[in-house]
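DM between two lab members

TW: hey, do you still have the ABC-type quaternary amine transporter entry open?
JB: yeah, one sec
JB: this one, 231 aa:
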Amino acid sequence: GAGIRLENLTKHYPGSPAPAVDDVTMEINAGELVVLVGPSGCGKSTTLKMINRLIEPTSGRIRIGDRDVTGMDPVKLRRTVGYAIQSSGLFPHMTVAQNIALVPRMVGWSTSKIKNRVEEMLDLVGLDPGEFHGRYPRQLSGGQQQRVGVARALAADPPVLLMDEPFGAVDPITRDHLQDELIRLQHELHKTIVFVTHDFDEAIKLGDRIAVLRERSHIAQFDTPEAILTN
Ligand code: ADP
Ligand code: ADP
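TW: and the structure you got?
JB:
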């Protein structure tokens, strides 16, 4: 597994009065599920996007395992980091199977390996492969789309998974179910997960540790759910 280290990480968007993320230092252990919880606008998405190199930090460093991500080539990064987002981010013109196959294809897996992997991933997230692989995203419910989003993020078996409010767009009952599934998955897979939410209950339910963030991603508390609930 690979841990993640954020060292004095800062993002100041050009033209904004204050940094979105200001001097954040944090260590996430290999195999740990850490939840970043805080109000809308406190810099959670910005932090995840920097880890995924979708945006460049203004200053500071990010290490995954013993590697500085700044120096990592994009294919290596895709192998290392899976990314699941609120809207599920599925491409509407691609089938479920094509969406899940995206990163494995990008990193050069063989067609037969990809085909098996797509089935395996659909099973993993509780969707019948025969029924779902040929469907388009519009032919799925919101909860099914989120499942496919998680399947896609896991497809290339990355040691690190970044999840940005991945269950934010579904009804409370489906969300509860997807949360249970994530807990079950994590017991099997032991990924290093950074999970972002503004929902404190979700943080308490899912986190091995929880970072409670204030504005500019200033860390108010970083501890286990038990410790946070008793403080
Ligand atoms: P969160 O994920 O916690 O809701 P974000 O990381 O999305 O917070 O945003 C943090 C701050 O950065 C907010 O004030 C937001 O308006 C600002 N911000 C986000 N993206 C951009 C951008 N591309 N350009 C300028 N400001 C941005
Ligand atoms: P495009 O530039 O056409 O959006 P990308 O190659 O950047 O294509 O990514 C395709 C999709 O793969 C993205 O929409 C994203 O949701 C998903 N994806 C899976 N893993 C990652 C990752 N580590 N970083 C960014 N996107 C990822």
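TW: got it. The radius of gyration is 17 Å. The chain has a mean pLDDT of 93.
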